[in-house]
From TrEMBL:
GO BP: hydrogen peroxide catabolic process; response to oxidative stress
MF (Gene Ontology): catalase activity; heme binding; metal ion binding
Described purpose of this protein according to its UniProt entry: Decomposes hydrogen peroxide into water and oxygen; serves to protect cells from the toxic effects of hydrogen peroxide.
EC number: 1.11.1.6
A Pfam family this chain is assigned to: Catalase
Entry protein name: Catalase
The species this protein was found in: Pedobacter hiemivivus
Binding positions (heme): R79, R119, F168, R365, Y369, R376
Length: 729
């Protein structure tokens, strides 16, 4: 794996070929005069034109009319799914050439830096909904390659709910707010979602991922990405292989606790968007390695699942992920609407060397993405919007339409032609002209599902078995929460039946929380996705015993835990704080790339015991422990006395404990911890080992304490603490 090192000086957001091209369309009003849209200088932008000072406004006021009309038309439809998103520019650099398997130029040349634009999103919520909803995250990357745009429109989970595009509108209708009362917003915890899921056994595997901590990431920068479908690579000789795409974050894969997620949704619904923006702004550029799993064409039928089935992943134990390059996000957009909102991704944007497979979900997507842009962006010229333009020239005979920008010269807009030198010319494959993979097809036209898609449970079980104990507990809790919000008992009961086919213990625990019983004999669920004339017997889901019992890559427990880069650490302080211990710990954290904020009873400064002033970043009124990764209480008798009496400080610590975060305190500050609910649970003597296990560091030597604290923060969370579930924060 590549070493995690900063690419540029903090604060500098480098340009690339694409961001430079965007400058042509970028404007800055700084120091400029105000004009109408037609360039006429405006003398008064405060008052409309009236018949007398107290008279009616005149229709002839073109300045008012223009301003109001533009305002009236500012909104465009939000995306029907993935409406809430955050974007960033960056670059992709290849580690090693893949020229043996693909002729895609950006995957051949290790010298090229390919500009990218990435948009992360939640799926179900509206544009203004909370970032911390329990949901799948979209992970869409547009590569502006020298052969045209390649879009990898993926998610942070490697599989999907359904196997056929035909069911997508049903899935989305079920998860979106219910149609009679438009509730709940950005949540799957309601009857229609679970009604659908409980009748669609093929969704079981994905539901396990959705109920796992993957659905509540700590940061967009700390989640994996997946292309989901099996794609094809094609090499220069026209030979094909199968490929699955992965993104592996260099900060590791981390989540928050569900209780925390719900609190963040209130305290800062823009939590993920802000986190991404601030990291890039401060020069801590997020990085992912691009991974590929390559399967030779001859091995298509080697697996116990079908490579074309999007509800299945290829376990990394069977086909390892090769890390082939790195993406660095190093520039925030200048304008949210122009870039993040207007960017148009499409699974069908591929370049020579990459091709589709017959995955029926992918095939449906190939239609949907252009279609949706036509309504969302208002016509067929959305490829001309600056963020969507490739960095290579575009020439063809497509013409006109709403909002056409390009001025095509000449008489001909058809081919062949003799009046315009038969331009633009077609391109030979050897010169980079796209040719489709010549897959052999000899089949009857049928509406059917392949039997090889019918095992809906073995990978759901594999996922569950691969989780650590805390992750399993979170799954039980998430299912109990979600189904607990379902009003119809029959739906809950059906889900318990489905869960019993995944894992008996899981079903028993969820059933207990719901006050239900697990069916004595696991019942095969009925597959309701059958054609009207279909024989239900032919559509029975299969319970196949998977050969693999566990796959380490499916758990987040073994993720990277060697850095505190960009983690946010709160220092609680009041007047009289010991500036020396505070600054020692602060400097040590900053040196490791962490972010530190001082939180005090009021804004301004706290006057330290040595009369120096310490700037306050947030007051207890505006800060909350759920917005930080760890908390430290420095020494200073007066400060400690104030904090001990400050209910918000105690609540801050209780909550940090409840959410399993690293907590540190100067020896003197022990008495603040003694006012918390968890004081009784603290081990008496702290050795390094206890610190590591418990995540609580107390010490008189600030330098030593800082070292241990940093080690604890890097662990991210001490989930074992949840066993002592007695903190009423
Ligand atoms: Fe999408 N999806 N999707 N999807 N999808 C859209 O396109 C669709 C699916 C994904 O940040 C829409 O431009 C169908 C899988 C992302 O702009 C729409 C099916 C995966 C984004 C659409 C799927 C995705 C979208 C809505 C089933 C992971 C956000 C707005 C056949 C591999 C892109 C838009 C962005 C967006 C259709 C299933 C990922 C309606 C029909 C599987 C990341 O076209």
């Amino acid at each position: 794996m590549a070493k995690d090192k900063p690419t540029e000086k903090p604060g500098i957001q480098p340009e690339n070929e694409k961001t430079e091209a965007l400058q042509l369309h970028t404007t800055d009003a700084n120091g400029e005069l105000m004009t109408t849209d037609h360039g006429v200088r405006i003398n008064d932008d405060q008052n409309s034109l009236k018949a007398g000072e107290r008279g009616a406004t005149l229709l002839e006021d073109f300045i008012l009319r223009e301003k109001i009309t533009h305002f009236d038309h500012e909104r465009i439809p939000e995306r029907v799914v993935h409406a809430r998103g955050s974007g960033a520019h960056g670059v992709f650099k290849l580690y090693k050439s893949l020229d043996k398997v693909t002729k895609a130029a950006f995957l051949n040349d290790t010298e090229t830096e390919t500009p990218v634009f990435v948009r992360f999103s939640t799926v179900a919520g509206s544009k203004g909904s909370t970032d911390l909803a329990r949901d799948v995250r979209g992970f869409a990357v547009k590569f502006y390659t020298q052969q045209g745009n390649f879009d990898l429109v993926g998610n942070n989970m490697p599989i999907f709910f359904i196997q056929d595009a035909m069911k997508f509108p049903d899935l989305v209708h079920a998860v979106k707010p219910e149609p009679d009362n438009e509730m709940p917003q950005a949540a799957s915890a309601h009857d229609t979602f679970w009604d659908f899921i409980s009748l669609m056994p093929e969704s079981t595997h994905m539901v396990m991922w959705l109920m796992s901590d993957r659905a509540i990431p700590r940061s967009l920068r700390m989640m994996e990405g997946f292309g989901v479908h099996t794609f094809r690579f094609i090499n220069r000789n026209g030979e094909a292989c199968f490929v699955k795409f992965h993104w592996k974050p260099l900060l590791g894969v981390h989540s928050v606790a569900w209780d925390e997620a719900q609190n963040i949704s209130g305290k800062d619904p823009d939590f993920h968007r802000r986190d991404l923006w601030e990291a890039i702004d401060s020069g801590a550029f997020p990085e992912w390695e691009l991974g590929v799993q390559i399967v030779p064409e001859a091995d298509e039928f080697k697996f116990e699942f079908d490579l074309l089935d999007p509800t299945k992943l290829i376990p990394e134990e069977l086909v390892p992920v090769q890390r082939i390059g790195k993406m660095t996000l190093n520039r925030n957009p200048d304008n949210f609407f122009a870039e993040t909102e207007q960017v148009a991704f499409h699974v069908g944007h591929i370049v020579p060397g990459i091709d589709f497979t017959n995955d029926p979900l992918m095939q449906g997507r190939l239609f949907s993405y252009t279609d949706t842009q036509l309504i969302r962006l208002g016509g067929p010229n959305f490829h001309e919007i600056p963020i969507n333009r490739p960095v290579v020239p575009v020439h063809n005979n497509q013409r006109d339409g709403f909002m056409r920008q390009t001025i095509n010269k000449g008489k001909t807009s058809y081919g062949p032609n003799s009046l315009g030198n038969n331009a633009p010319q077609q391109v030979k494959a050897a010169d980079g002209g796209f040719t489709s993979y010549q897959e052999r097809i000899d089949a009857k036209k049928v509406r059917a599902r392949s039997k090889s898609f019918f095992d809906h449970f073995s990978q759901a079980t594999l996922f569950f078995n691969s989780q650590s104990d805390p992750e399993k507990k979170h799954l039980v809790d998430a299912l109990s929460f979600e189904l607990g919000k379902v009003k119809t008992v029959a739906i809950r009961q059906r889900m318990v039946g489905i869960l019993s086919l995944v894992d008996e213990g899981l079903a028993t625990e969820v059933a207990f929380a719901l006050g239900l019983k697990v069916p004595a004999k696991p019942q095969q669920p009925i597959n309701h996705s059958i054609p009207a004339d279909g024989d239900p017997g032919n559509y029975q889901p299969l319970k196949v015993e998977g050969k693999l019992n566990k796959s380490a890559a499916l758990s987040m427990a073994g993720t990277l835990k060697d850095t505190i880069k960009t983690r946010k650490i709160a220092i609680l302080a009041a007047d009289g704080v010991d500036a020396k211990t505070l600054n020692t710990v602060k400097s040590a954290i900053l040196a490791e790339g962490g972010v530190v904020q001082v939180i005090a009873p009021k804004l301004g400064v706290v006057v330290a015991a040595d009369k120096s002033e310490v700037a306050v970043d947030e007051s207890f009124l505006t800060a909350a422990s759920v917005l930080y990764d760890a908390v430290y209480v420095p020494g200073g008798l007066k400060s400690i006395a104030t904090l001990e009496a400050e209910a918000n400080a105690i609540h801050f610590l209780n909550e940090a404990f409840k959410h399993c975060k690293a907590i540190a305190a100067d020896d003197q500050a022990k008495q603040v911890l003694e006012s918390t609910y968890f004081s009784k649970k603290l081990p008496k003597d702290f050795s390094d080992e206890t610190v590591f296990k418990e995540g609580i560091v107390i010490g008189a030597d600030a330098a030593k304490l800082a070292k241990q604290f940093i080690k604890a923060i890097a662990q991210h969370r001490f989930w074992d603490r949840e066993k002592k579930r007695q903190v009423p924060a």
